[in-house]
Write a structure and sequence with these properties.
Elements: H1 26-34, E1 43-46, H2 56-68, E2 72-75, E3 80-82, H3 87-120, E4 132-138, E5 144-151, H4 153-167, H5 172-181, H6 199-206, E6 214-217, E7 220-223, E8 229-233, E9 240-243, H7 252-272, H8 282-285, E10 294-296, E11 303-310, E12 313-320, H9 321-326, E13 337-338, H10 339-354, H11 357-376, H12 379-402, H13 407-433, H14 441-459, H15 463-473, E14 478-485, E15 488-496, H16 500-506, E16 522-523
Parallel strand pairs: 1-2, 10-14
Antiparallel strand pairs: 2-3, 4-5, 6-9, 7-8, 11-12, 12-13, 14-15, 15-16
Helix pairs in contact: 2-3, 4-7, 5-6, 11-14, 11-16, 12-13
């Protein structure tokens, strides 16, 4: 009717995406990007204002940008133009945007109420879960009334096998490989992901309470108060919990056996890392000394434990993982050596070349020398300024929380700054109390030598203790180079120990005051 021509390349659509989303709507983003540097069209037509967005503030701002770019906006259902020429136009925009947002909120409440009633009745309110089939239940009129779960016997056997393997000590990755090798049914993959089991899907199976018959719903909310997709936990009081024995796949004994092992792993991780979160399980789970610490000099890959038949029984060796898993095109290092021989050589070298009094004496002298230089260069003044900056950041973050900023982000930032501030303040206090001129070098040497003796004892007792010591002492991996000679084949290994800060801590010296370099022992047996 207006004689306008639609530009096909400028038809923008976001199908199936909430109108409260603005950063995750490809069509909307393409529209807004097309406005710069100059809009390639003169008129934007949509059915109604809510099609642009259903969050009042964001929608108003988007309309302002469109109009400011010289584009006229029309709604064809109302046959009118949206203008922002007067205060009345702007207040009308605010009112209609408010009404659209209110309708979105009512729709959310209606959906939530319907799902809550279904969940209380034991009906399915989500998608399909591995181990179960979703069965449609028809009403008297023949239309679908609701959906119920029913155990899928084939998939349920896979679930039970996962729990049994975990309880027997098999890790997530190994379980996934075993299932894939046996062609076991697997959960439906995400879009563009290969079908099959992955460690993450095994983890999900082991932590889903539905397999015990426990139904938990409403544990998280998918959208924030702005209506944008941002998943967050709900308070425990809002959870809906019920038990349905007909949905049980694993027994309580199977569940407890698997989770007892997982708790044991977490506890070992916590102990081995000194309470540090995020420790990697492979650093403490291994029954052997070197996995995670040894590298092949030929390809840079890991030295790992391999086994083979040897003398009529199974024997274990260290060998290049890339050679054994990926082939000679990646690495030509085929040399393997008995783990007992390699462990003994490395531990003996650490004991004789690193954990000895001469090293302790060099560390003490180096630490004191560095401390003298740092005190003279104003290191303490620099650290005091750093502490003041952290205090200022905490003040600004606290003010931002009071103004109502993004609470979770701000709280995480506050925790991070508080941790750094507390550590720095404690180290500064120790450094200011420390009079370098009055330090008894001989007493320090005796104290450190005692620790070295205890460490040497640890090396001969348990693999876990040896791995903990390697983690503390080594500044990088041990590099193993295969060497062949008339006397026989073997590995030459070398590495660098970093005892400065560790032994300085034993002596009561703040870590930032003691980072001596140039005298760390390099061992190359």
């Amino acid at each position: 009717r207006h004689g306008w021509i639609v530009a096909d390349e400028h038809v923008y659509m976001d199908d199936g995406i909430s109108g409260a989303e603005f950063a995750n709507r490809p069509g909307f983003l393409r529209l807004m990007n097309a406005l710069k540097p100059r809009a390639p069209f003169h008129v934007l037509v949509m059915s109604e204002e809510s099609r642009l967005g259903r969050e009042a503030i964001e929608t108003a701002y988007a309309l302002k940008q469109i109009v400011a770019a010289g584009v006229r906006v029309f709604f064809y259902l109302e046959d009118r133009e949206r203008t922002l020429d007067s205060p009345t136009d702007k207040i009308m925009l605010s009112l209609t945007a408010f009404a659209d947002e209110l309708e979105r909120e009512k729709a959310r409440q209606r959906t939530y109420d319907a799902m809550l009633r279904k969940a209380r009745s034991g009906h399915v309110v989500g998608g399909r879960v591995f181990g179960y089939d979703n069965i449609e239940v028809l009403g008297p009129d023949g239309a679908r009334s609701h959906v119920q779960r029913r155990i899928n016997d084939t998939e349920a056997e896979v679930v039970r096998r996962i729990f049994d393997l975990c309880a027997a000590g098999t890790g997530y990755t190994r379980i996934a490989k075993l299932l894939n090798a046996g062609g076991a049914p697997s959960p439906r993959p995400q879009r563009r992901r290969p079908a099959g089991w992955a460690p993450s899907s095994v983890t999900e199976i082991l932590h889903r309470p539905l397999y015990r018959g426990d139904i938990l719903w409403n544990r998280t909310r998918k959208r924030d108060r702005w209506g944008q997709h941002r998943q967050a936990p709900r308070p425990d009081a809002e959870w809906l919990q019920r038990h349905d024995e007909a949905l049980r796949i694993v027994t309580d004994a199977q569940w407890e056996a698997a989770h007892a092992r997982l708790r044991g792993i977490r506890e070992r991780l916590r102990e081995a890392s000194g309470g540090r979160l995020g420790a990697r399980s492979r650093d403490v789970d291994s029954r052997y000394l070197h996995p995670g610490f040894a590298r092949c000099a030929v390809c840079g890959g890991s030295l790992a434990v391999v086994s083979r038949s040897h003398g009529g029984k199974r024997a274990f060796f260290y060998g290049c993982l890339a050679y054994h898993k990926r082939g000679t095109s990646i690495c030509g290092n085929s040399l393997v050596m008995r783990i007992e021989r390699v462990d003994q050589a490395v531990l003996a070298t650490l004991s004789s070349d690193v954990l000895r009094p001469e090293v302790a004496r060099a560390v003490v002298e180096g630490v004191l020398e560095v401390m003298d230089a740092r005190v003279a260069s104003g290191e303490l003044a620099y650290r005091r300024a750093e502490l003041r900056e952290l205090e200022d950041e905490l003040t600004r973050l606290t003010a931002a929380i009071a103004r109502g900023g993004d609470l979770m982000v701000l709280i995480d930032a506050v925790k991070d700054r508080q941790t750094r501030r507390d550590i720095l303040a404690a180290n500064l206090e120790a450094a200011e109390r420390l009079d370098i001129r009055r330090l008894d070098e001989r007493a320090l040497e005796r104290k450190i030598t005692d620790h070295l003796t205890r460490w040497r004892d640890l090396l001969t007792k348990h693999v876990e203790d040896g791995r903990t010591l390697l983690r503390e002492v080594l500044s990088g991996p041990l590099v193993f180079t295969p060497e062949r000679s008339k006397r026989g084949d073997g590995y030459r290994f070398e590495g660098e120990a970093a005892l400065g800060q560790i032994l300085a801590g034993i002596a009561g010296v703040p870590p930032f005051m003691a980072s001596p370099t140039g005298f760390e022992p390099v061992f190359q047996p």
